[in-house]
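From the pipeline queue, job 12 of 40. The input is one protein chain; the requested action is below.

Action: predict structure.
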Amino acid sequence: MKKLYSLFATVVASAFALAQTTYVWDCTSVNPISGTNANISSVAFGAAQGNNNGTTTLITTSSVSSGYTGASGSSNFGAAAYKEVLSTATSTYFSVTVTPVAGNKVTLNSLSFGSRGTSTGPGKITVYSSIDNYATAIGTVNVNNNSTWTLNNITFAGVNLVGAESAPVTLRIYGSDSPGTGTPSLGTANWRIDDISLIVTSSTASLAVIDTKNVKSGNFVKNSFVKNNEIVFGSDVKDVKVFNMFGQLVKEASVQQNGTVNVAELAKGNYIVTGTVNNQPLSQKVLKD
């Protein structure tokens, strides 16, 4: 047990940083109209639709958005979608790529958008990502295909929401499963999206790890090996945050000396605990048993 404790009794330098950003499109361009993150170099929709039924212009001014709060009512992204059951190989999709600055990772959080489909348009919208090569859906929503606009929200879920270090992450927004009758016309847009809001988190991927012998014993976390669901702190600590190894925030608190933070709801594994002691930022890696 002593060897196991020593293995994980490490302190992580405060270069570990997170920044959540909302990117917004009014669909007058493939680039967002708002959203800035120093750790992300670019965010943009693809210039063309994927698996489009014929050729259609991506940016259109037909059938402008309306009927929900925040509808911009100018341009939108249009596609000629197929009616068939969802297939990532053949269903029509829009794509957006988030490219981090070297040394950073991208975490996918959520997506909201207005959608309008005609009678041959999609009845379901499903999101996949390049993180697992579009193998598993990370969110889906059913939509109307009655030529009216609706605002839709998807909170991403699953185990593959964090990209690799320095790697761009592409989302594909698939339209499929039309419940309507008739056959989609070749080269005619039957699905439109607008007022898109994408929330992502960037995190520095590299963590500088140093031995705890260089830090005053017990000044921060007293039990780097967490056996009884309680992280014990040796000082008054402000802004305690617990991150999983994907850089996702999973717990927040502030504690007094010898106070504890209960982490019973967290799975077994490694976590990074950060906080401020006497105005000094500290970080430490812990192992929850």
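Job complete. The chain has one helix and 20 strands.
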